[in-house]
Design brief:
By secondary structure, the chain is α/β, with parallel strands linked by helices. It contains twelve helices and 19 strands. Helix content is 31%, strand content 20%. Strand 17, helix 9 and strand 18 form a beta-alpha-beta unit. Helix 5 packs across helix 7, helix 7 runs parallel beside helix 10 and helix 8 packs across helix 11.
């Protein structure tokens, strides 16, 4: 199809127009058809242009779109925090990689159809698809850097556009479209594509391997334990786990399988213990610092995980604590600063009962302690997160006073960021830390002091995180996704 209204012809693929669907599977099939047609068109035209030189036209294809229009308020189960639009009107979202998100899309569209009783419209959107994202999943095609091609790429193809690659929807700053259309999902297609590309870069694993339950840690010590557990599970035919994926997309399905090691480790090494339907567990070593924590969660959020937990090390702030004790966060003192522009510090980050219970249950199971005796090894309280690893070297009066006023019992650099971004992105979150030093009481994290602690506690701590995730995975989706994470004006999609 050629658009002759512009200065130069704009050539687009022939696509079917919008069509109503009352079956979720058929709707996703159409999304896949539209997406495939758009990406094939752009890949072919892009390859031709690099081979034959600059064409005398622009090539453009569009993301597919889901749109629903309702004329009355839905009478829905008041316990359900998602699956329905807040008020009558038109709601829409652009879609990318419907093959990757098929289960999620069928689930969310099915709820819309059930709760509103009107068809969803599936068709091309008016948002152009950047050529970078269209060729991203074809290893035989790569986009040359600016100036490397014989012609300016943006003269012929659409490139990423920051006006549709942002967090306005989840941050609550999105304005309705010119026709009054409200967002249907928390992320636009371009925002999702951007994060899928970043995930592959930072983690050295394909986004398709990510599971719905994500553990974050700040130490590589946990990785070998996770691999050992994965091999144990692969040896158990009743475990339900089917594969283990390491960096570089190395995959084993047998307990004694050989894993090829990456020559260069990525910034955030990531490992996946897979179960059908994405119900397994992903472990991400985000390293140290709130910036890494924000980067990882910014991008993993587009995969719409069912929960993410921080299982890292922390400084114990109470003299009554011992190295190796656990800290279950029920509040956060946010001095990490990286999210202040997106989520003001005056916004409370509530503890989520379902996650807290799962973590406490897992601690009790692994330690064989219950009730009051559990307090021997676990404290529940506020965790402070800071952006300065060497905070101990600063003048103490101010920091220590704030820690005391907040009633903080532990300090780290990542937990508040992960919890706050979970709140911002509507992803259930939790924190269980392990005390590795007590700087206010003369026990610094130095070589030798913590060696015995590392050997004895890492495996137990990781197992608590894994067991908590297995408990969470057995919960109904509507129970995990608490209404505490949803505002009074929300997108219908999780």
């Amino acid at each position: 199809m050629i658009d002759t209204t512009s200065r130069i012809p704009v050539v687009t693929p022939d696509m079917p127009g919008p069509e109503g669907f009352s079956d979720a599977k058929a709707a996703v099939d159409r999304l896949c058809e539209l997406y495939e047609a758009a990406t094939v068109f752009l890949r072919e035209r892009f390859t031709e242009s690099l081979r034959d030189g600059r064409p005398d036209c622009r090539y453009r294809a569009f993301y597919p779109e889901i749109r629903i229009t309702t004329t009355s308020f839905a009478q829905v189960d008041s316990r359900l925090s998602f699956g329905h639009v807040a008020e009558p009107g038109t709601h829409a979202t652009t879609i990318t990689r419907p093959d990757l998100f098929r289960h999620y899309l069928e689930q969310q569209i099915g709820l819309l159809l059930h709760n509103h009783g009107v068809p969803v419209m599936i068709g091309p959107s008016d948002t152009p698809m950047p050529v970078h994202f269209a060729v991203a999943n074809d290893a035989s095609v790569s986009v040359p850097q600016e100036g490397a091609a014989e012609f300016p790429l943006r003269d012929v193809f659409d490139v990423p556009d920051l006006s549709t690659t942002n967090d306005d929807i989840v941050n609550g700053t999105q304005s309705p479209g010119p026709d009054g259309t409200e967002p249907l999902a928390p992320f636009t297609a371009q925002r999702v594509d951007y994060s899928l590309a970043r995930l592959a870069h930072y983690t050295a694993t394909d986004p398709g391997h990510f599971q719905n339950h994500v553990l974050f840690t700040n130490y590589q010590f946990y990785v070998s334990e996770f691999e050992a557990y994965a091999r144990k599970m692969l040896a158990d035919p009743d475990s339900g786990y089917t594969a283990f994926v390491s960096t570089g997309n190395a995959i084993i399905t047998e307990p004694d399988g050989r894993l090829a090691r990456s020559e260069k480790m990525p910034q955030m090494p990531t490992y996946h213990l897979k179960r059908p339907g994405g119900s397994g567990i992903t472990l991400v070593n985000i390293g140290v610092g709130p910036s890494n924590a924000k980067t990882a969660t910014d991008h993993i959020a587009v995969l719409r995980p069912h929960a993410w937990l921080m299982v890292g090390h922390c400084a114990g702030l109470r003299n009554s604590q011992s190295l190796g004790d656990f800290v279950l966060a029920h509040g956060y003192l946010r001095e990490d600063k990286v999210l202040d522009d997106d989520l003001p510090v005056w916004v409370p980050i509530p503890a989520l009962a379902e996650i807290q219970i799962a973590l406490e249950t897992a601690v009790a199971h692994e330690t064989q302690l219950e009730g009051y005796d559990l307090k021997r090894v676990m404290r529940t309280g506020t965790v402070a997160s800071v952006d300065n690893r060497n905070w101990e070297l600063r003048e103490h009066t101010g920091p220590v006073q704030r820690l005391s006023q907040s009633r903080a019992i532990a300090l780290d650099m990542e937990s508040a960021t992960i919890a706050a971004n979970g709140f911002r992105f509507r992803v259930p979150y939790g924190t269980l830390l392990c005390v590795s030093d007590k700087p206010l009481h003369g026990e610094l994290k130095l070589p030798g002091m913590a060696s015995d602690f590392y050997k004895t506690q890492v495996a137990r701590h990781l197992m608590i995180g894994i067991r908590a995730m297995e408990i969470i995975s057995e919960m109904p989706l509507e129970r995990i996704h608490s209404r505490k994470l949803r505002s009074f004006e929300e997108t219908a999609f999780l």
